[in-house]
Amino acid sequence: MANRVWEDREIKFDIPNIHKKLRNGENILEIIDSVEDTKGNSGDLGQLVITNIRLIWFSLTNTKFTLSIGFFTIVTMNTKNVISTLRGSTDALYILTSTPKQRFEFIFTDYGANQKHFGSLFEIYKIYQSTTLYRELKLRGAILTEGHLNILRQEQVYTILNGVYNLSSDQGNLGTFIITNIRLVWYAEANESFNISLPYMQMISLRIRESKYGLALVIQTGPNAGNYVLGFRVDPQEKLHEVHKELISLHSVYSETPIFGVNYDIKALNKTEDMLRIDDISEIDNEASSEINSKFTAYLSEEDREEHREPFYCKELGFAMEKLRDGYTIKDLWNVMGTTTR
């Protein structure tokens, strides 16, 4: 019935200009500059684009090198502090993903001068995880409170229709339809916990067909929603055709501009971060900060012209380590902050 939404559920490689091919309803929420795809394209800097449903990385030097990682595929995500020859201490983002056919690990290293890092990505992904009702079929969920639908953000209720039979059992269950701009909800009158919340995103067909109960509204869901065939009887037939027409219209409008439910106020976050930076600055000891270990910084940034330095056992640290460059001692590198007498 509509263009299939694959962007949050799949991983795609090497699609030229993928960052310029966002689907309707997809919004760019954050851009992080100077990010390396460390595992797949080491040494090639690009941009990391975070949308409301996926993560996009593309090379700034070769338009062929791109990645699209749907949020639904992410299994785990964390950051580690790493030491690089380009920037010294920086953040690396580790993402483990899983699709029905394969598992992938991605590593992105932030080399940006502004050191924006990846905090906004974790916030956006957390919102995505908490808004599944916008995108997923839900059976027997806590979607109602005392017979009233818990309205989602951006959701508008258009029709509430009583006396609708769910034909999933031999005798049928009497209940109520709630039709909104995002989903179709049905719940049983005798037990509101027996319910269905079905987003238009998961519908692949809406038809009126003959059943053993007479004409019925038949809705088929896609593979992402279990390939269900759901039947509902609406009386009288005139009302059945009205409901069918309304659902077809709303489904068409939704398909043009899906509502994914991921709303992220980057300005509010930036304002909070600015306030935190101001507070941090007021606590900095200027005298101590001027004594940051210059030898440590020089050691990290100095180009290593030796191809290999043999390891040795360091008695001071209690483990084997690579031989230091000439002119440096363990104490030089261990004391990151200078010592002062108070």
UniProtKB/TrEMBL annotation:
Its main location: membrane. It comes from the Eukaryota. One of its GO terms (cellular component) is BBSome. Residues 26-80, 155-209 form the BBSome complex member BBS5 PH domain. Keywords: Cell membrane, Cell projection, Cilium, Cytoplasm, Cytoskeleton, Membrane. SMART domains: DM16 (SM00683). InterPro entries: BBL5, BBS5/fem-3, BBS5_PH. Pfam families: BBL5 (PF07289). One of its GO terms (biological process) is cilium assembly. One of its GO terms (molecular function) is phosphatidylinositol-3-phosphate binding. It is found in: Cell projection, Cilium membrane; Cytoplasm, Cytoskeleton, Microtubule organizing center, Centrosome, Centriolar satellite. PANTHER family: BARDET-BIEDL SYNDROME 5 PROTEIN, BARDET-BIEDL SYNDROME PROTEIN 5. Belongs to the BBS5 family. This is CLUMA_CG017210, isoform A. It comes from Clunio marinus.
